[in-house]
Amino acid sequence: MTITAHLERIRATYDRRIDLHLDRLLRLLEELGAPHRTTPPVIHIAGTNGKGSTQAILKALLEEQGKRVHAFTSPPITGWADCITLAGSIIDEEELAALADEVEAVNAGRPLTEYEFLTACAFLAFSRVPADVLLLEVCMGGRGDCTNIIENPAACVITPIGHDHQAFLGSTLAEIAHHKAGIFKDGAALIVSSGQAAEALDVLRAEAGLFGASALVGGEDYAWHIRVDGRWSFQFAGLALELPPPALAGRHQYLNAATALATLAALESRGHTGLGLPDQAGIGRALAAVRWPGRLQRFLHVPGLPADWELWLDGAHNPEALEVLAAHADAEWADRPLHVIAGLSRDRDPSLLGGLVRQTSSLTFVDFPAPVPIRAACDLAALSGARAAVSFEAALEALVASEAGKGPVRVLVSGSLYLVGEALRRLAARTPQPAEMARGLVA
Fold first, then answer.
1. pLDDT at 77
2. Are residues 58 and 147 in the same domain?
3. What does residue 74 show for φ and ψ, rounded to 5 degrees?
4. What pLDDT score was predicted for residue 166?
5. Of 164 and 194, the one with more pLDDT
6. Which site from 118, 120, 283, 376 is most exposed, i.e. has the minimal number of CB atoms within 10 Å?
7. How many domains does the chain have?
8. How would you label 2-18 residue by residue, b for 16+ Cβ within 10 Å and e otherwise?
9. What distance in Å separates the CA atoms of residue 159 and residue 52, rounded to the nearest whole number?
10. Within a domain: residue 410?
11. Are residues 187 and 271 located together in one domain of the fold?
12. Nearest-angstrom CA–CA distance, 252 and 92
């Protein structure tokens, strides 16, 4: 049975997609032999924005040193297997399906969310394949997230906190930060990125203090500065580095890179010599090698589009991330018309796109497949005066029909990671390519 079929059965048994409690998963993991207690050292990453990019940079830095890296991330971009990396490679679909058979047999039909089920599969896989480190990305919040069954992480990292999932995490940044800080554990290195609102940072400091610890805070305990030519510097304790820009586009990726560097530098300073930083040249190579799908990801020469068009994918879907995306568009994309193709989950308001809309030549809302309810494109278009299309492909075709021959154009797909995943699948179908490229993990 495929992993998708397993998850459909899980949803039919327990239809709550989100349930922030750990008891069901802990019970299941114990019955599976407690695989969560046999992992390599864990770097646990929470936050609202930048978690996945920070994890991808950490992976590149560690692999530059020859480390075997497990990783768990969410949501899936092109398929459920995307969430699980075993010793550097995405898990094979058949291997994941076999793990799902095993987990479902042990679970025996008891209530479980799909994410709890996938997490159990992931830890079973991690326990059976040797690795040097596990990079563990929180799905939602932190305190009640499935990944928080880890007991003794080596490091706990908080990326920028913003407004997202308020129905579950609270309406204020302080309430959301309380959930994120729930991953902090006694004895772990605690790293907090730059870019935190004061009310969130106050909570993070207080939560760290419960363990008699002080978190390392970006802009205070470590620093980074971007030069005009794109190169940048990083300072931590006695370490001073001059570095090339990250391969990931956008000024916010310097922040994520600095967070990753601070994490490994902190681990090294605490005696985790196997999880430290490469030398300066190695850091440069790692930053150049980072790939992370759907985060300001550019496609050129897309079959079916005019040769001088650019297509960009970015999964920004909350106010802070969309503000960053709008700022990037304002600073970098004034050279040609910008056409936005957007989709939104049902809990998102179209006003989120306000910053982008002010800079666009057109906005087209689209329908797209997703495991969560979405807002119908026709309804969004009626509210905003934008266009509507039944799919990503239909929106592209309409743009080509109206804009081809008018010169270079930039098309941006955004508003939902699920829409970005659909776009990646459709782009892969236009040009057959290796699975890693289809998932957007290589250039």
1. 84
2. yes
3. -160, 160
4. 65
5. 194
6. 376
7. 2
8. ebeebbeebbeebeeeb
9. 10
10. yes
11. yes
12. 32
